[in-house]
Design goal:
The complex is a heterodimer. Chain A is of the alpha/beta class. Helix content of chain A is 45%, strand content 17%. Chain A has a five-stranded mixed sheet. In chain A, strands 3-6 form a two-stranded parallel ribbon. In chain A, 26% of the residues are buried. Classes of the chains: A alpha/beta, B alpha+beta.
Chain lengths: 265, 194
């Protein structure tokens, strides 16, 4: 009597089948390997590679342009340095209050005004003045007496003065009791900007400056026509105090403010 | 009637079928292998080529950075110049040229009008108080201000004064007319032009 089951597996048929299909098996196996280890990873990697190539190409072109620009600027090195000196005189790097007051005094006397008040204030950028220039400001309250003609000359001289001074607001009133009197009492609020620049060299950021740009050339020529006051001596010691700056306001408020139709004949 | 008699044994038929299957599957698998090999070769070539280009660009970038580094002082000068220039340009382009305003105001003001107070306010307005001989003079003054062009006026400042609000008009005991008005002007007419 048998004690165990005899399981007979016909391995020869299996062996024959494998041998018959050995070529397809090997081919499909190699194909699967190619798909798994080459094609699929390449498809995954390709977009990143193309993106890398694109970004490096555009960086290289940017640096090419920068090198060309720097080589061109090197040919104009002395012009650049002169232009920088000019711009530093127009937009100074520090507040330099004594020089500013000296300048205001010179312009005031040059217009024929009689100085009656001169105060200054420091700190911060005037909201309406600076925009996004990053400049700081010295504010000056100026009180003078003079005529209307002198007022125009004063404003013209301020507009062509270096360092830069901007008349923000002003007011005048008849100095005496006779309305026909030509002598005026004038008050000005003046802002003078200053800006410290400390650039550092970077290798990748482009340079925007184009010294051959017509608007750049035009502005530089315009600034060269300014009057520079830095070396002008005051007639006497300019006396001024640092005080809170007073805004120029309308002192004659109308009693009845009504909007009436524009008068016509 | 004649009938075909299949004299081939079943076993032989089976073997022939098996051979056909083996042959077809072999051909198909070889075809698949050829296609996948071709696609693999294509991808290997593409990735190798792109990697080479990336390496080439890297080399060029390194060389260009080295050149830029050697010109760092020029770059600093150019950047400082650019910053100052941009700031000055903005400051000059934004500021009003009040000398032009005052000249044009004087041109348009009749001689019979006397200004007692003149204040340049914020928001592009001027507040004035003054005296005139008659109401007609004030009207003429207002019309002159609002006229597009005027004789002896600056043609570039045509339309400078945009609107007038006559706040108050009083007849004084002396027979003159005291007035106060607010004038709005166009600041773009007073800015820097290249």
């Amino acid at each position: 009597m048998p004690n165990k089951l005899d399981i007979k597996i016909d391995t020869s048929a299996l062996k024959d089948t494998v041998m018959n299909f050995i070529v397809p098996l090997v081919c499909f196996g190699v194909s699967a390997g190619l798909v798994l280890f080459i094609i699929y990873p390449s498809i995954q990697k390709m977009p990143q590679l193309k993106s890398d190539l694109q970004s490096k190409t555009s960086l290289r072109m940017q640096l090419d342009t920068k090198v060309a620009k720097l080589n061109k600027l090197t040919d104009y090195k002395s012009v650049l340095e002169e232009d920088l000196v000019l711009l530093d005189r127009v937009l100074v790097s520090e507040d330099n209050v004594p020089y500013l007051l000296n300048q205001v005094d010179n312009i005031t006397r040059g217009a024929g005004f009689t100085l009656s008040k001169l105060n200054y204030g420091l700190g911060g950028a005037a909201d309406t003045e600076s925009g996004d220039t990053g400049a700081e400001f010295v504010a000056v309250n100026l009180g003078v007496t003079g005529t209307y003609e002198q007022l125009i000359h004063f404003l013209q001289n301020m507009e062509k003065a270096a360092r830069l001074v901007n008349v923000s607001n002003y007011r005048y009133a008849i100095a005496g009791s006779d309305i026909a009197d030509s002598t005026l009492a004038l008050s000005f609020l003046i802002y003078s900007p200053y800006l410290q620049v400390n650039s550092t060299a970077t290798t990748d950021d482009p340079i925007q400056l184009d010294i051959t740009d017509p608007s750049f050339v035009s502005m530089l020529n315009y600034l060269k026509g300014f009057t520079f006051y830095e070396n002008m001596a005051p007639s006497e010691t300019v006396k001024a105090e640092e005080r809170p700056i007073e805004e120029i306001e309308n002192t004659e408020e109308p009693e009845n403010t009504e909007t009436t139709p524009t008068p016509t004949l | 009637m004649s009938q075909s008699v299949n004299l081939i044994p079943d076993q032989e038929v089976q073997e022939q079928t098996q051979k056909k299957v083996v042959k077809l599957s072999s051909l198909f698998s070889i075809l698949v292998l050829v296609v996948t090999s071709g696609v693999s070769a294509y991808f290997i070539y593409q990735t190798t080529d792109i990697s080479k280009q990336i390496k080439s660009e890297d080399d060029k970038i390194t060389s260009l950075r080295s050149q830029i580094q050697s010109m760092s002082s020029m770059e600093i000068t150019a950047r400082n110049l650019g910053k100052k220039y941009n700031s000055i340009k903005q400051l000059i382009q934004n500021r009003p040229y009040y000398s032009l305003l005052m000249e044009e105001f004087r041109t348009r003001k009749p001689t019979e009008i006397y200004i007692r107070n003149f204040t340049v306010l914020k928001e592009n307005k001027i507040a004035i108080t003054g005296q005139a001989q008659t109401y007609i003079t004030i009207t003429t003054f207002g019309n002159n201000l609002l006229a597009k062009e005027i004789s002896n006026g600056n043609p570039k400042l045509a339309g400078l004064f945009k609107s007038i609000i006559l706040n108050q008009v009083d007849l004084s005991q002396a027979g003159t007319v005291d007035f106060s008005m607010t004038i709005e002007y166009d600041p773009t007419k007073l800015t820097y032009a290249e």
